[in-house]
Batch of 2 targets.
Target 1
Amino acid sequence: MCLILCAVRELILAKYLGVLLCAGKSFSVDLIHAKSKFYDSFNSLFHHVARYQSELVVLRVLSAFCRPHLLYGTECLNLNISQLRSLEHTWYCAMSHIFRITGTDVKLICNYTAKSFDEILSSKKD
């Protein structure tokens, strides 16, 4: 694209206030940056804390320090179902590492030990 003899670069992604905005016909966001920041903070804290504390203590520490990276800006974004499930899957993967479980047990453990992911998202919007 050229505008009065100078080239204008077209952007596919733009980062604004920590949220990656995608170019397109409708407003959309890219959650890869949020998920990678969550995994970075999760891995660093988990490997330092997990061998010294119980699973519930590790869960509380990681909920306080890592979950904000995952949920940053979600209260003002209109996320579709696939984006919500992607965030939920990221959180459940972290829980499966903490409690060393797989499959449907992850959701069951998350519902007993903390708020469900849907409750967390709805409380952020209120």
Note: The CA atoms of residues 96 and 106 lie 6 Å apart.
Target 2
Amino acid sequence: MQLGPAAIRSVGLPSAFAFDGGGKPYRKFTNKIRNPRGEGGTIGVIGAGGSSPTNWGYNTGGVGLSIELIGNGVRYGLPYTRVRFSGTAVGSGQIRFYFETGSNIAVTAGQAWGQDLWVERISGALEMIPQIIVRANTNLDIGLRIVDGTRQTGNSFQRISATAVIADPTATNVAGSVRIAAAGGGNIISGQSYDTTFDIFAPKSVQLSVIEGPELVVNGSFDNGLANWHNFPQGTGSTSVVNGAANMLETNSANRGRIGSLALMTVVANSTYKTSFKHTGPQVQLFSSSGLDGAGTLYSSPSSPLTGTEVVRTGFFVPTATTAAIFFQPTGATAGTVIVDDVSVKGQTPGYLPAYPIIPPVGTPGDSSSFAAAA
């Protein structure tokens, strides 16, 4: 089978270069996995004569299984890399297999990323699950956020994928990876023997568009005073609306104005939410209610009082469906008035992740690009 529009459609993939009926402009996607062909490795058990393909890597998770590079080839018109995971586990856990070095895929908060690959299990019972691992440094073992994708099941040729919006403002990189798990997606079990071989086809990691949901904060502009806001000052502190903005008066940490959103926001499991507001004056902190990922401080402004206005953009991830609220509180470090305005919370959803592979020419690992109609 040749790799072309007809062949791609024959395995359930959309054509990479077909025009839609309305002549819609095509958008460019760049695969940040530089070696989706899996070139450059040495055949054999990795670390015992064999080596990973260029830019690929792994973390055994302490389970003790050997990882063997068996070879490369072309099937279904796509290049594949055959990898075997075998042995008797000496610990419980999961193996992470990476398709890109730790710091190559740079990200910032608010971006959406998608990862996919095609896989065929040749033998055995272990399963493969794509992951987007968000981190704040280049250490592959420190994941700020791990988003699982669809789970590979059975031995058929199939696509597995994961998408995520990056919420954490400290995020710097994502990893293009999969985890190797026991049947059902659970941990590999210590003392149990395993022997599974996968063919991995053309992994890719691409930046996606971000689709924003409706505004969740009621009266975030304070045009209606403090309506829909909970006003709960401490001591002699107070909050009032002046010139269409919330003014929180503070003397110290025992005497300060505080406000929180009164109308609870309904948030959806495994979703990302963007939060923004304008701030002027002494240091202020933004808190999220319990039930959100990392419940507590979402943002803490610089300690020095601002003479101008900053526009703050941050976000949070929701692991389980719940209702949520946000709260503003001056730190009390400097007497004065904290001014907050234009408070906003909106859900963010990753846009279209093209299903077709994006592969560079043979022997030229590097960023590769292709096109797809914008969704």
Note: The chain has two domains: 5-210, 212-348.
